[in-house]
Specification:
Elements (H helix, E strand, L loop, with lengths): L15 E2 L6 E2 L5 E5 L5 H18 L5 E4 L4 H7 L5 H10 L1 E4 L13 H8 L4 E7 L15 E7 L9 E2 L4 H13 L13 E2 L5 H17 L4 E6 L8 H15 L4 E3 H8 L8 E7 H10 L6 E4 L1 H14 L9 E4 L2 E4 L18 H13 L3 H16 L2 E2 L1 H4 L6 E2 L2 H15 L1
Parallel strand pairs: 3-4, 3-5, 5-15, 7-13, 10-12, 10-13, 11-12, 16-17
Antiparallel strand pairs: 1-2, 6-7, 6-14, 8-9, 14-15
Helix pairs in contact: 1-11, 1-12, 1-14, 6-7, 9-10, 11-12, 12-14
The structure holds NADP nicotinamide-adenine-dinucleotide phosphate.
NADP nicotinamide-adenine-dinucleotide phosphate binds next to loops.
Length: 419
């Protein structure tokens, strides 16, 4: 592949993947694409790079970073928001990390992030949500939360199939719904916007499969399918039913359903078996708070996943902390949950932990679990020592307020101490 403006580092090697299983084959000096991103991306991007380099070196490896551009930095270089160079390089090099992007109004994109996920078919958004010692939280026992949320990334009402009120298109759709499909007294008269909610067997099963695979590999107790199937029978209930189908048809005695758990095992699951359960989304939102420790891995359609993972993130310390990654078959794009917070851009002020811990997910995906654990331990130790950025500093007694870059240096130092 030849690129217009991407410089491929000469000193690293490519990550490859098995054509059938998508399993990654990772050299000890991989080339990893990085997009620093817009706004505070220019602060948190370099901070995360420093920490991930230190963790790789401490475990006998190295990362050859390859800078890519999207958003504002791409407009300066390519005069467009999402150049082919960027998409193709992530496709070719397989595992990448990005900071937040601001989608400019009138750019032709609903969201640059959604466009990137769609173009690369990154169908699972993964957000591990666990509490780090020392991080202030609005709940009394934040340590009870240790959850991994798998959110479907390509369909649901986020698929972008919608029509604006007052257009010819929306009137055509209304006419079809009323006259051909028989819903003649359902939509109110007057202007209306209409959106379509596709939930497919294919999209559901590959997402749920990913969640169950993760639960088995990570020794988790359960996978919960979160849906609104009590109201939306043919979309959300279908998600639930296809989810159970993939579990029972493909995983044999590695899984049992919650019904089987009670009928056959009296509520006591055999060791090493993953229990598949389901919860209605509104109930799940309150159980996040009231029965936190009963949930492990959640699998959800796009919209439920969006709401629920932010709510869960708030319980363990909020946006400065919350990491994420988008997974496809043989492809990974790690990114923090937070946005570009333009008012803090370039101030060397914000918390880079979310970007650093997104890098931790990336390291896990490379199979570098020792380096990933080192990153987590070093971040936790740094925060526990009260050395934190402004967002956490304003919520704790005492402590030392550090700039973004100083905090990253403190984490690097802790990595050196721990290794
Ligand atoms: P935001 O950028 O996430 O910022 C909202 C607030 O969250 C900030 O003002 C700050 O709160 C806090 N915050 C966010 N990141 C933080 C960090 N690293 N450290 C400490 N505090 C942090 O949300 P937004 O203002 O709604 O969105 C701004 C732009 O980002 C929009 O253009 C949006 O589209 C884009 N966005 C991009 C992504 C992505 O690239 N994946 C995701 C979400 C939003 P305080 O001011 O209270 O300290």
């Amino acid at each position: 592949m030849s690129y217009e403006q991407v410089e491929v580092p000469a000193d690293g090697e490519r990550i490859t993947a098995d054509a059938e299983t998508g399993e990654l084959d990772v050299p000890s000096n991989p080339i990893i694409p990085i997009i620093h991103g817009d706004g505070i991306g220019t602060d948190v991007g370099p901070a995360a790079q420093k920490v991930l380099d230190a963790a790789a070196e401490a475990t006998g490896r190295s990362i050859s970073w390859m800078r890519l551009y999207a958003g504002e930095s791409a407009r300066e270089r390519y005069d467009e928001n999402l150049p082919d160079d960027t998409v193709e390089a992530i496709r070719e090099f397989r595992v990448a990390i990005k900071g937040p992007l601001t989608t400019p109004v009138g750019s032709g994109f609903r969201s640059l992030n959604v466009a990137l996920r769609k173009k690369l078919d990154l169908y699972a958004n993964v957000r591990p949500t666990y509490h780090l010692d020392g991080v202030p939280s609005p709940v009394t026992s934040p340590e009870k939360m240790d959850m991994v949320n798998f959110r479907e990334n390509t369909e649901d009402v986020y698929a972008g199939i919608e029509w604006e009120a007052g257009t010819d298109e929306v009137e055509k759709v209304r006419e079809f719904i009323e006259e051909e499909m028989g819903f003649d007294e359902t939509i109110h008269d007057g202007p209306v916007g209409i959106g379509i909610k596709p939930i497919s067997e294919f999209g559901t099963k590959r997402l749920v499969r990913r969640a169950i695979d993760y639960a088995i590999e990570d020794g988790r107790d359960s996978v919960t399918l979160v849906h609104k199937g009590n109201i939306m029978k043919f979309t959300e209930a279908a998600f639930r039913d296809w989810g159970y189908e993939v579990a029972t048809e493909e995983y044999g005695d590695e899984v049992i359903t919650e019904d089987e758990l009670w009928e056959e095992y009296d509520g006591d699951a055999p060791d090493g078996v993953v229990v598949i359960k389901d919860r209605i989304a509104d109930n799940m939102l309150q159980q996040l708070l009231t029965r936190t420790e009963q949930y492990d891995v959640l699998a959800m359609p796009n919209l439920n996943g969006d709401y629920l993972s932010d709510a869960a993130g708030a319980q363990i310390g909020g946006l400065g902390i919350a990491p994420g990654a988008n997974l496809g078959d043989g492809r990974v794009l790690a990114e923090p949950v937070h946005g570009s917070a333009p008012k803090y851009a370039g101030e060397d002020k914000v918390n880079p932990t979310a970007m650093i811990l997104s890098g931790r997910i990336m390291l896990e995906q490379l199979g570098w679990d020792d380096a990933a654990d080192l990153v987590r331990d070093a971040v936790e130790e740094t925060i526990s020592a009260g050395t934190v950025t402004y967002d956490l500093h304003r919520q704790i007694e005492g402590g030392t307020k550090l700039a973004t870059s100083e905090y990253a240096d403190a984490v690097v130092e802790t990595i050196h101490d721990l290794s």
